[in-house]
Amino acid sequence: MIMEDLHGGDEPEKVVMVRYGELFLKSDPVKYHFIGILLRNIRLALESAGHSCRFESPRGRIFVYGEKPEEIAGIVSQVFGVVSVSVCTRVAPDPDALRDAAVRLAKDHLHAPARFAVRGKRQSKTGMDSQQLGEYVGSAIFDAIPGLSVDLSHPEYELFVEVRDCGGLVYDSRIPAPGGLPWGSQGKVLCLLSSGIDSPVASWLAMKRGCEVSHLHMDGGRWAGGDVRTTAIENLRRLSLWCPGNDVQMIIINAELFYDRMQELRIPPRLRCVLCKRFMFRTADRLCVREGAQAILTGENIGQVASQTLANLAVISDATTTPVLRPLITYDKAETITLARKIGTFMDKQGDLACRAVPRMPATSATREAVRESEEKMGIDGLLDRVLASPQYVTAKNGEITRSG
Ligand code: ATP
Ligand code: MG
């Protein structure tokens, strides 16, 4: 790097510093592989928002250079795998340059009377150590802004100065990011996506852990409320905002026939919910093979509804040999709603989302024998072949539906 660059213009250069979390725990080859995926995701997110940027990835950090650093930081703070982001002023890596930049920043953001602290950090082993650097810069701020007090334990304002190989950095805020693992680093899962609140949150949690998520919506036709299908598609659209630049898929299977058959054959209504969920799992099972997905993902949760008692969850799981992931299994509804609001999938206005097949008294402990007997009567394998014969596909990207039908 040429130091003169750092003093070229009147305005000091801004850079966005990106911290990533768990990747530190991996062995070197795995870590570099994951950092490559993370860089790709950050680049895609920024390009999707119209930013063209330059990147550096020295040890332990990613630096992003581009116009509108505040906007860039906002976008990067939504990328899975990123723990936090700071907009930094970059200067020469010497104490005086850091001091001057720090005083300038503090004059903008720190107002007396206030308790403040300066935290120093350095990568090199020469020159001032971290504590000396903090004290040097801190006393300059103390002199420059009358009425301040230093409080290293409980400061109201914190300013950070770092000496890194890439230069000196000064910043006073950390934008929290979701953490997790880079999207696409953990293989693919198939999420059973409904029009409800839970399953989009489950999808988001799996994305956060690095999974590419494809979706399956079972369309009940006349058995489903009039707004169910469009709301499931809206859930998909909103989820796509979390993996910008990538297509997010949903397969819609028309399962009206299945519900018609339960009615025609007078299957005991109390078994309907368990039979319905088993049919969804069987459908997902087949599609996992087609889609190359390694697990089924649901928004199920212990005790939320009759089909989610432990006994029924066991009978439902029995319909598939594919692993079933249930990230919300222990969440309270209120916790799920809080997360849904935070990630933007919660909808204040809900239309007609009722299921017309739900009986008045669903079984809370269906037996395997009873459900198998009903399924045999319904000719479940033939039904499955028929509903799978005409899938529909919906694709969302960057918050827009790009393919439907
Ligand atoms: P959600 O649980 O997503 O809020 P819900 O409350 O309407 O939806 P539940 O009866 O709780 O549905 O269903 C449990 C899980 O089964 C859902 O979290 C979802 O993963 C899956 N599921 C329910 N309905 C459908 C559907 N029509 N298509 C695909 N998956 C569904
Ligand atoms: Mg639910």
Characterise the protein shown here.
Helix content is 38%, strand content 22%. It contains 13 helices and 16 strands. The strands form two sheets. Strands 1, 2, 3, 4, 5, 6, 7, 8 and 9 form a nine-stranded mixed beta sheet that branches. Strands 14-13-10-11-12-15-16 form a seven-stranded mixed beta sheet, sandwiched between helices. Helix 4 (95-109) crosses helix 5, helix 6 packs across helix 11 and helix 9 crosses helix 10 (310-317). It starts with a helix and ends with a strand.
Briefly characterize the structure.
The protein has 405 residues and is an alpha/beta fold. The chain has 13 helices and 16 strands. Residues 1-8 have low confidence and may be disordered.
Give the topology, please.
Elements (H helix, E strand, L loop, with lengths): L3 H4 L5 E8 L7 H21 L5 E3 L4 E5 L3 H8 L5 E10 L3 H15 L4 E9 L7 H15 L3 E3 L6 E8 L2 E5 L3 E2 L11 E5 L5 H11 L3 E8 L8 H13 L7 E7 L1 H9 L7 H20 L4 E2 L12 H8 L6 E2 L7 H11 L24 H11 L1 H9 L3 E6 L2 E5 L1
Parallel strand pairs: 5-6, 5-7, 10-11, 10-13, 11-12, 13-14
Antiparallel strand pairs: 1-3, 1-4, 2-3, 4-8, 4-9, 7-8, 12-15, 15-16
The site of adenosine-5'-triphosphate has 16 residues, from helix 6 and strand 11.
Bound ligands, each once: adenosine-5'-triphosphate, magnesium ion
* Strand residue content: 15-25%
What's the CATH class of the largest domain, please?
Alpha Beta
Helix-strand pattern: HEHEEHEHEHEEEEEHEHEHHEHEHHHEE
Residues in helices, as a percent range: 25-40%
Q: Sketch the major β-sheet.
A: 9 strands, mixed
- Enumerate how many helices there are, as a single number: 13
